[in-house]
Amino acid sequence: MKALVIIPARGGSKGIPRKNVRLMIGKPLISYSIENAINSLYDLDVVVSTDDDEIRRISSSCGAQVIMRPENLATDIVTLDPVIFHAMNEMEKIQNLQ
Fold first, then answer.
1. Overall pTM surpassing 0.85 (yes/no)
2. How far is residue 42's CA from residue 49's CA, in Å, rounded to a whole number?
3. Contact 20, 27 (CB under 8 A)
4. How is domain 3-94 classified at the CATH fold level?
5. What torsion, rounded to 10 degrees, do the Cα atoms 34, 38, 80, 71 define?
6. Which residues of the chain are modeled with pLDDT < 70?
7. Eight-class DSSP state of 25
8. Helices (H) and strands (E) in the chain — how many of each?
């Protein structure tokens, strides 16, 4: 059985705008989280939860599965709990676990 890794990556960051797609040493910041999870010693399903098409494209090209997050889960006031719950439920549907 695989463990599920959910990487939340919202497009509308206020502190550092577009931080997940900004380059750090030539690669988008989000790619480092994805690569670390994929290269883990454990058997993991790596999923990025996002509301942003550019983050979706980058994440897919790095080998992560992507769950598109609805608008109501992509605001400044939403905590991680409902975001993780949404992504987990979507992955269960995709893998026919419900």
1. yes
2. 20
3. no
4. Spore Coat Polysaccharide Biosynthesis Protein SpsA; Chain A (3.90.550)
5. 60
6. 1, 97-98
7. T
8. 3, 5
pLDDT at 96: 83
Q: Where are the domains of the chain?
A: 3-94
Q: In a 3-state reduction of DSSP, which class is residue 80?
A: helix
- Partners of 40 in the β-ladder: none
Amino acid identity of residue 94, one-letter, is I
Residues contacting residue 54 through CB under 8 Å, at least 6 positions apart: 11, 21
> Tokens 């989000």 label which residue?
30
| pLDDT confidence of residue 1 | 67
Rounded Cα gap, residues 29 and 34, in angstroms: 9
- Amino acid residing at 10: R
* Closest to 52 measured CA to CA, from 78, 23, 90, 17: 17
